[in-house]
Specification:
It is a single chain. The protein has 532 residues and is mainly alpha-helical. The protein is built from 23 helices and no strands. The chain has two domains: 1-395, Na+/H+ antiporter like fold; 402-518, no CATH class. It is found in: Cell membrane. One of its GO terms (cellular component) is plasma membrane. One of its GO terms (molecular function) is potassium:proton antiporter activity.
Length: 532
Amino acid sequence: MSQMISTFILVLTAVISIFLSQAFPRISVSYISMVGGAIIYLIPVLGHHVAAFNSDIFIGMIVAPLLFFEGQATRLNAVGQELRHIIQTAVILVVLCLILAGFGVWAAAGVSLPLAFILAAISTPTDATAMESVTNGLRSPQKEGVFLKMESLFNDASGIILLNMAALWYVNGYINYQETIVDFLISAVGGALFGFVAAWVMTLFRQILMRTSYNSLNAQILLYVVTPFVLYYASEAIRVSGIIAVVCAGLVSNAEAQRSRLLNPRQIHLGFDLENMITEIFNSIVFVVLGFMFLKIIADERITTNSLNWLGIGVLLYLINVMVRYVFGRLRLHFSNRSGWIFALGGVHGAVTLALAYTLADMPVRHGDFNLVLMAESTLIILSLLVPTVVFRFILPKDVTNRDAATELAEVRTTMVRQAIEAVQKMYLPENVKTSVIFDLRAQKQKTRVRDFTKAWMDVVRHPDFTGAEKELEMRAFINAFAQERQYLDMISQSEVKYQDYIFQLYNEILLAESLVIGPAIDRHEEDPNDI
């Protein structure tokens, strides 16, 4: 019961944050979610019901599906084209950051060398989810964006393996280089192979089902949703990287969706919608948890009574990581000065970094050192979010905001609906059918009031349903109206290039609306053919 209450509180806060982000479009939903998490902690009746942080559950139940869906949005051949750069950023760059940050913290902060390398290892993974929060309302350059996305997909496994090496060094007092390299190869290569093979087997199984009479839409969607959870925990059970496995599985699923969208359009469309919903909610939950944990860590008296050594370490970790990334981007990736800074500052840290810090709770690490790691890594995460949020406002061009697009699309909607209504007005229809269709078309402008809806709802309740003939006429009226709307949008999309993506989204809304009008009408006629 306590886990259910805790989950409900986090999900509800995430949902409220998403609504608030629509009211305050200039503020990223990630920051709103973090504030929401902090508020949960400040309200005892809520904070006391939030379960203790568990890094295994957090990575397996939240981070793994997010990485799976992130991989699913990435074409497999794009990974093949960027394989050299992936190895450079997810392996070579990670090792360089580890070495320089580890020795830098050891020399400047006076901590033991193994503890310094633990701090450095935790600071290496970057977060694609957190990156989106610092570019809100800005247009990210494509080249640097591809590098950052590919890096964040694959460097989590490197950070986990290097953390295990540093933790063993901390406990045993020595480093086993040969064992570390072997573990890295087994974990990374094994995770990739397991992810590809398991995802391919599941893909073939789904494809076979889709071509038989045994296929079930709901069961297929559920099978797709549980894939990242099953693959992650199965990979960890056989001691290979679950993170790499779910990313590779997502890459396989991308190609599957590309070649199956017309085999069963309803299934693919519903799968995409469910994926978008899960991704949006889980992303918000990640930052709700971050906000809650930040305040919980800072408010812990056992931490705040210590020196501010953790603050200096956190700042030092961030500065070293940024400078190493900048130099690496200029020398190895051949970036310009501006691109180098975008790449350096774009290495944002988030959920994975916090989760890795909490894995030390299950290791024989001294309590004082554990608290030091938590505070230092929390400082690193906050800096990696705040600094690029400010700097990118000066070096990245502004993107079309949702508010600007909404203003432009309002005019498009008005003209579009007016043409559709004119087409319906010219049709010979019973007055009750014409009134009903025109009311629904006007609702597309999102200008109908709740009072209008209430009146229309009362009419539906009082009067009998349309006859079969009236339903047929209603459906054909909508088909005619939607055809006029699509024709208008097709013309507009060729001229309004700036808002083209938004216009295509509106086009998609019309297609969905038409499927709602046609589908239920056909079903009703099939159930009662004598009604016509």
